[in-house]
Specification:
single chain, 10 helices
Length: 249
């Protein structure tokens, strides 16, 4: 009986549940921070440097207030460890799928680096708020956005190759949604950049609100892109187990 108990996994979880929980953490944190800042700190959250009318807080403003910052840090802190795990799970998947194909292996490695960098950028902008050290917070945001876009490009490229040699419905659905979400994300990144520059140059009423709205859509589409892991690993499980005596390293 003891030997049989030792062979059983300590933790066993469907990857679909794991993926949903991982994405829902920052989603819950983001919605909570935006709603709380609108109802509790409206003037502080919507303040702009040129003091024109603004009706929505930027994400940086929403997560820099108290107690909103603690909610966001708690959610992202719990979210970050599974994200590192998923990044290496994808790398292992790509390495096995593209064995002997140098170009795809290199793109797989770049995808892993981009995913890790994206997560580090998210942690940096989370734990260094814009009201504490703005320059460091800004660098974290730039790292996050640049890495996220690179990760999406590399991922779409790899899944384009996968779907060429696969008749699976789930693989094709995953690729289609990845590609759509990538285009959606890029479009609103460009819109956010345009509205941000226009606000800083002309200080027009409501322009910063449009920037904030585009910023929300960029982050939400990023979350949705990562949620496509639901299809990629739908039949897989996350397990923590004790290795057999003869296979310990």
């Amino acid at each position: 009986m003891l030997g049989l108990d030792r062979d059983r996994p300590l933790i066993r979880l469907q990857f679909t549940h794991f993926a949903v929980a991982t994405v829902c953490l920052p989603l819950f944190g983001l919605i909570t921070c935006i709603v709380a800042s609108l109802f509790s700190h409206y003037n502080e959250a919507t303040y702009t440097h040129c003091q024109v009318s603004n009706y929505l807080p930027s994400i940086s403003a929403a997560i820099s207030l108290t107690p909103e910052r603690y909610v966001w840090r708690f959610c992202v802190g719990l979210h970050s460890a599974p994200r590192f795990l998923v990044a290496f799970a994808y790398f292992s998947f790509y390495r096995g799928h593209f064995e002997g194909r140098l170009v795809e292996q290199l793109v797989s490695a770049l995808t892993l680096l981009a995913s890790l960098s994206e997560n580090v950028g998210l942690l940096l902008l989370t734990y260094v708020s814009s009201t504490e050290t703005y320059s460091l917070h800004k660098y974290g945001f730039v790292i996050f956005i640049a890495s996220a876009i690179l990760h999406m490009i590399c991922t779409c490229r790899l899944w384009q190759v996968i779907t060429r040699h696969s008749l699976g419905v789930e693989e094709r659905k995953s690729y289609r949604w990845k590609y759509r979400l990538f285009l959606f994300n890029i479009f609103f990144c460009l819109c956010a950049g345009y509205f941000f520059r226009r606000h800083n140059k002309y200080c027009e009423t409501g322009i910063y609100t449009l920037f904030a709205l585009c910023e929300y859509l960029v982050v939400l589409s990023n979350m949705a892109f990562h949620m496509t892991a639901y299809w990629d690993f739908g039949s897989k499980e996350v397990m923590v187990a004790i290795p057999p005596e003869g296979k310990r390293f």
